[in-house]
Amino acid sequence: MDDDAFHHVPVLVDRVVELLAAVPDGRFVDATLGGGGHAAAVLAAHPGLELLGIDRDDAALAAAAERLAPYRERVQLVRGAAGDLAGLVRAHPPIHHRTPGTGVIAVLLDLGVSSPQLDRADRGFSYRSAGPLDMRMDRRQGFTADDVVNHYDYATLARVIRDNADERFASRIARAIVEARPIEDSSHLARVVRDAIPAAARRTGGHPAKRTFQAIRMEVNAELDQLAAALDDAVALLQPGGRLAVLAYHSLEDRAVKDHFRDDATGGCTCPPGLPCACGAEPTVRLLRSGAWKATSDEVEVNRRAESVRLRAVEKLGEPA
Prior knowledge:
By secondary structure, the chain is an alpha/beta fold. It folds into two domains: 208 residues, 3-Layer(aba) Sandwich (Rossmann fold); 82 residues, DNA polymerase, domain 1, CATH 1.10.150. The chain has 13 helices and seven strands. Strand 2, helix 3 and strand 3 form a beta-alpha-beta unit.
């Protein structure tokens, strides 16, 4: 793969840099590294950070290595999943040992599939071109979209499409896929999904197969499970004063991040709103904004993927080490 394909414009990069520029010197973990665009900008703005960059995609890591070459003395790149964040951090100690323990002072998660992955037909992520039913972020993994599309039973397939994408026609789509088997490739799948959706509903909301492809991709890569584990690990690993920033591109992911951050910021308090806490809950983070940051119209004009992004961030509480 041409590594230049991964050199796309990172979403909300200025805001991410601003949020992470405020942390002390230490270790910055980009657990969904992609082509390294966010990481390069953060390292350029903060000379006191060293990077542990993690990604499941070998092509992304190759592109990131090139992009991050100017900072190579403070960069480690590792192939792995964000859901294994704690284990990967333990297995790869800091380069310069600036802080005690793991020394993690910043974590970034940029969720979903990247534009370069969508652009490669042979990865199978796109509903706009013919490619294999693959959709794996880690191509060492055996489980592919073909297993979901051609081998899940009707009920399981309908649940995946409904739960992973809020698709209101999940049952119709699952029935159509089962009846059309074997589905040959991503283009064939897109046609089956399109034809299963009522004509009136196809006229709005973008490509009719978009949600179904999202749902299958998330199932193949266990993305919601990965996200939950990554959020738990990130908050636990952060040093006091450290920050976690998360970019989400659809409501399911953003809702999971919002709920996790709310629980961390309240300590899981169950007391009635407006009354002093009497349940003994202890907050572990503070919200850096009550809502989410969104892209400006200028950013969306440059990068259409930014239109749906929601950025949320928290800071770890406690006394600095």
